[in-house]
Amino acid sequence: MTLDIKSVDIKPKRETFGHxxxxxxxxxxxxxxxxxxYDLQSTTNFHYRPTYNPKYELYDTEKTAIKMEDWYxxxxxxxxxxxxxxxxxxxxxxxxxxxxxxxxxxxLLDSMPNDIKKQIxxxxxxxxHYEWGAxxxxxxxxxxxxxxxxxxxxxxxxxxxxxxxxxxxxxGLLIGENExxxxxxxxxxxxxxxxxxxxxxxxxxxxxxEDWFELHMFQNVIMDGFIHPLFFNxxxxxxxxxxxxxxGMMTEFITTWYEExxxxxxxxxxxxxxxxIENTEFLNTCAKKYIPIVEKATLSLAKNLLSxxxxxxxxxxxxxxxxxxxNGLSL
Length: 331
Description:
Layout: H1 18-24, H2 32-35, H3 82-106, H4 114-123, H5 127-144, H6 148-175, H7 181-192, H8 194-206, H9 212-240, H10 245-250, H11 252-275, H12 277-305, H13 309-326
Helix pairs in contact: 5-6, 5-8, 5-9, 6-11, 7-8, 8-12, 9-11, 9-12, 9-13, 11-12, 12-13
């Protein structure tokens, strides 16, 4: 007896959900990111206005000066939805943990000069409070922004900032041999040391901004555009030749994350500016307002870190301006 097995190709009646098909075209297969993003936010049938801000509906396009014909143009170029975001970060966390194990196993911190350790404890560890503030600001973006495309990416960004703060805390504890007093000292520096007050004031001023896209520009574009290149690029290059190479290994997650997240940040600026002249003018105004503020705060910190602070901060500023110009602004 012979047995002939045949396969039958059953064509699905539809390739995706109706609201997704209306965007990408009938009969086309949607990516998981598209199905997890398009038109997820409610637009009608709100029962009441939020009591904490009754001027607006729960989701309201009037919460920012930016105007968009379609708010789902803010698609994340990384195409993150919950599943692939978590898997990506888990892999990166595995690499980071392997770096910490390697550093401890090889005793790399034992060979790090004491003056470099003290610099990190004094001039880098307070940055954990900056990252916590960035977490708060991005959660505000999740709360106030319009469209699931932007809000979901901001949510991932917020959790990443909390992770950055935790990694900086781990670095401080490793260098300080698990003495929690170093964390208390870092908080005192953040609150009282004159070199940190410019950044602290800028961050705390950002907490009360009402326009959520202005907040996005201030925090994710401009403040990050100065602070991350200073601490996790210029400073680490400065200490590499002085025995501080272990610091670069311990911050690998943060540097990799910044390079990746910049793709999303730049895309939001590019999409908004290309929508209208009014949007571009608003973004130009934000950039011209906040760049000098953050530049001054960054220079105050750079003087503690670098041998040529003015030159490096000016280079960081120019790189940021080049980024913004490339994405449609005129500065």
